[in-house]
Amino acid sequence: MPTPLKPGAMDDDRYDRSKRVPWLDIESISMARVLMVGAGAIGNEVAKDLVLSGFRKITIVDMDHVVGSNLNRCLFFTEDHVNRRAYKSETIAEGLTRLSHEAEPLAVTRRIEDTDRSVFNDHEIVLGCLDNIAARLHVNSHSYAAGKAYIDGGMDGLVGKVMVSFPPSGACLQCGMNKSHAKVAALRFSCTGKDVVFHEPRLAAEITTTSVISAVMVREALKIVSGKTDLLLSNAFYYDGQRNVSEEIEVPLDPGCPVHSRRD
Amino acid sequence: MRKPFNLAFCPVLAVVFLVLRIKVKNAETGAAVEMELENENTIDEVIESAATFWSKDMGAYVLRKGKKVLRGGSSLSDAGIRAEDVLELIPDPEGG
Ligand SMILES: [Zn+2]
Questions:
Q1: Which CATH number does the domain housing residue A60 bear?
Q2: Is A216 among the domain residues?
Q3: Distances in whole angstroms, Cα of residue A158 to Cα of each of A66, A208, A213, B91
Q4: CA–CA separation, A176 vs A178, rounded Å?
């Protein structure tokens, strides 16, 4: 039996205004399982947007601790988290439950490379909120092999990029990479002959670019879950925050890309 | 006008092989440089030369022609690059 109409009821419904967007499928959004890899600045914003959009089941994978320099752009991190070296994934998960009692976040305090690959099969969408190319390549290939949509976001200062890989069609993240990416990835783990040195560049980062890139990522996730895949970014979305302009640039599928041959 | 940045290093070879003159723009600054290349040069080589020329920080870059990202391993001829083409070097941001 339909619920009887009560005056003012629409103002009690958390998702009333979302439901006024015709194609948003709130029911499917609430059921979808989302894997969020990386809990830095983009991770904070993506997590917030996911929960406010109605996503509930969110797995957050990250092994880092909160540090002071995160505080210029991370909604859920405070000085208290810095002082007690809180895990980023756990801190975001706690923050999400404060944001909505319906949220069911799960924090995994491990590197994605050390996490069982079945995690990719257990989720419908993978959101890459990462800060290095090696981890991106790992998540890209495992998402593709599991047949899951991978939405990757990256930024440097006022520049940002979002790419959606939607297997089995179209290019993946690796299709758009070249030797300069390989060089950066190799530098990250440089071998001194004695030891492997972990090189972590300090890139420019601030909240406004983070917000734009994260919002575009979550918008793409909403399209997938709501069955609006015809509206998906089929290519890379580039954002130049200096001029506040954006454009979509085609990334052709690379027939030599190992990710596709692995799946075939 | 600035002297073109020359990847076809040897002037004798430049006569034997077809030399292609293109322009590469720096998306971050708006600057542009002319390059002399051979059809067999790769997109990876153009990216590395342009990034070095502009003393770019170690980082990932892609080269685009119009609305399309060019594949790193492709030769200029395979990528359909012609004389007078204008390509743009854009950063591929890594941070999160
Ligand atoms: Zn690929």
A1: 3.40.50.720
A2: yes
A3: 23, 8, 10, 11
A4: 7
Q: Which position has the token pair 């890594």?
A: B94
CA distance A47 to B72: 34
State ipTM: 0.85
Model confidence pLDDT, tens digit, residues A200-211: 778 888 999 999
Question: Does A197 reside within a domain?
Answer: no
Give the DSSP per-residue string, A213-251: HHHHHHHHHHHHHTT-GGGS--SEEEEETTTTEEEEEB-
Q: How many domains does chain A have?
A: 1
Task: Look at residue A2 in the predicted model and tell me its pLDDT.
Answer: 74
B contact test, residue of A178, A206, A235 with most B CBs within 10 A: A178
Residues of B in Cβ contact (< 8 Å) with A157: 93
Q: How far is the CA of A204 from the centre of ligand 1 (A)?
A: 28
Nearest 5°: CA angle at B80, between B75 and B82? 100
Span A2-41, pLDDT tens digits? 778 788 878 888 999 999 999 999 999 999 999 999 999 9
Chain A residues with CB under 8 Å of B48 CB are 179-180
Q: What is the rounded distance in angstroms from the CA atom of residue A82 to the CA atom of residue A175?
A: 38
pLDDT digits (tens, 9 = 90+) for A89-116: 999 999 999 999 999 999 999 999 999 9
A198 Cα to chain B: minimum distance (Å): 15
CB A66 within 8 A of CB A72: no
Chain A residues touching B92 at Cβ < 8 A: 154, 161, 176-177, 180-181
Secondary structure class of A154 (helix, strand, coil):
strand
In which residue are the tokens 């790769």 written?
Answer: B42
Domain-located, residue A192:
no
Note down the domain range covering A80: 21-178+204-263
Cross-chain residue pair B67–A247, CB shorter than 8 Å: yes
